[in-house]
Design brief:
Elements: H1 4-13, E1 19-26, E2 32-38, E3 57-58, H2 63-76, E4 98-102, E5 108-111, H3 120-124, H4 137-145, H5 156-160, H6 177-187, H7 194-206, E6 211-212, H8 219-222, E7 229-231, E8 238-240, E9 260-261, H9 263-275, H10 283-289, H11 296-308, H12 310-315, E10 325-327, E11 332-334, E12 346-351, E13 355-360, E14 365-370, E15 373-374, H13 379-398
Parallel strand pairs: 7-15
Antiparallel strand pairs: 1-2, 1-14, 3-9, 4-5, 6-9, 7-8, 10-11, 11-12, 12-13, 13-14
Helix pairs in contact: 2-6
Length: about 400
């Protein structure tokens, strides 16, 4: 059987992927694996030097973990409540209707109002009634009915003040709830911009220096940006792409998708949560991140969606059909042990360009697989990320928590 290193060297040499950065660590840091494979770019006239571990990437929805942490910090201070209605802070949704369809004349059809209040808990767990317009045909049709196009940038208010798609708490649907949670953090902190808030309350406590919502303010990070690649449908090989991403044109920090950073910097967040070291959140709050939150109907929706969408399921959990999943604070919560891999109550999520992170407190292991490849849920990347993760579980078990990793 080929080793992890041989597998990735071959995948990069054959053009299956452009490159990847992989880091894993145990609770006390006595086990640490770091390695990189591939190139910084596959663009013919680009920088095709070896990918470095401090390469800067757009981490997309990996941002949601930090947005969640920021909101939970405000809960700890008493500035926000998990379960009170949000309308005194987010009046935009107080009387928001539920979109039920588009009639034969191309006009939107609504159910007047919503019966269950929207709360921060529901925003953080994708069960508040909100979606992402670019992900759901009904919201796209709603935009069209208004003569609007989906804007890849702008402000949260201009881009994400959307009709609800269901009564809050009744379903699970991936959406912009955490982007709005980030806006709540700003509003209860005297409109302190979210990037400044995170700098003070997340980046500085962890010694994070290479993380930003705005590359224009950090030319040093922009100079280390890893190029995006795309899988060619005809050849199956990767090629360079300059496709516009949802972060393009954003005029304010978006807590659900906006950060740029390197894998080692992001690992500082994962390691802090795994160790429950009190640098970001109180121990009891960290414990709560690994508890299920969904109502029975929302949980049913989540599991039915994952069971019916192999790409999404494989990218963000990979459990067999019928396995139990829920939603913690910050990510998908696996409720089932998988022998030789993740344990029950593992928290995991990822980002659009095929990044994946996980925190397994039972096994005492966390890690991140980071690349820049679209489309999301790429089958080969999913397979390779599993090779990496399972190998980390084997190494930590075989070596008693001490592993040698290449010096980079």
């Amino acid at each position: 059987m080929a080793s992890l290193e041989q597998t990735f060297e071959q995948a990069c040499a054959s053009g299956e992927i452009a490159g990847a950065v992989m880091i894993a660590s145990n609770t006390d840091g006595s086990f640490r694996f770091e390695n990189t494979f591939g190139k910084r770019s596959v663009r013919e006239d680009g920088d095709q030097s070896p990918l470095k571990k401090d390469g800067i990437m757009w981490i997309a929805s990996c941002t949601k973990l930090l947005g969640t942490i920021a909101a939970l910090q405000c809960v700890e201070r008493g500035q926000l409540s998990l379960d009170a209605p949000i309308y005194d802070i987010v009046p935009e949704f107080k009387d928001q209707d539920i979109l039920t369809g588009i009639d034969d004349n191309g006009k939107a059809v609504y159910q007047k109002g919503h019966s269950t209040p929207m709360t921060l808990r529901l925003l953080l767990t994708h069960s508040a009634g909100l979606g992402y317009d670019e992900m759901y045909p009904l919201l796209m049709a709603w935009r069209e009915s208004r003569g609007e196009k989906v804007s890849p940038g702008g402000t949260i208010a201009s881009r994400m003040t959307l009709p609800l798609l269901y009564d809050p708490s009744s379903m699970w649907m991936y959406g912009c709830g955490i982007d709005w949670a980030g806006k709540m953090v700003e509003r209860v902190n005297d409109n302190m911009p979210l990037d400044a808030y995170m700098q003070k309350h997340i980046f500085e406590p962890l010694g994070i220096t290479d993380m930003t919502f705005d590359l224009a303010t950090r030319p040093d990070l922009a100079a280390r940006m890893v190029d995006m690649s795309k899988r060619d449908e005809q050849t199956g090989k990767v090629r360079y792409t300059d496709s516009r991403m949802p972060h393009n044109g954003a005029t304010e920090p978006m807590a659900g998708q906006g950060l740029f950073t390197s894998a080692p910097e992001y690992m500082k967040v994962l390691q802090s949560l795994l160790a429950n070291d009190g640098k970001l959140l109180q121990p009891a709050t960290v414990d709560s991140m690994f508890e299920p939150n969904l109502s029975p109907s929302a949980k049913h929706t989540l599991n039915a969606m994952l069971d019916g969408n192999p790409i999404f399921n494989n990218a963000m959990g990979g459990l067999s059909v019928g396995a139990e999943r829920d939603w913690g604070f910050g990510g998908l919560l696996m409720m089932t042990d998988v022998p030789g891999w993740r344990s029950a109550r593992t928290l995991t999520w990822g980002g659009l360009p095929n990044l994946t992170w996980w925190i397994d407190r039972k096994a005492g292991l966390c890690g991140i697989f980071a690349g820049q490849l679209i489309p999301t849920g790429d089958a080969r990347v999913i397979e390779l990320s599993r090779v990496f993760e399972r190998d980390m579980y084997r190494r930590i078990e075989a070596e008693g928590g001490v592993a040698e990793s290449p010096k980079l």
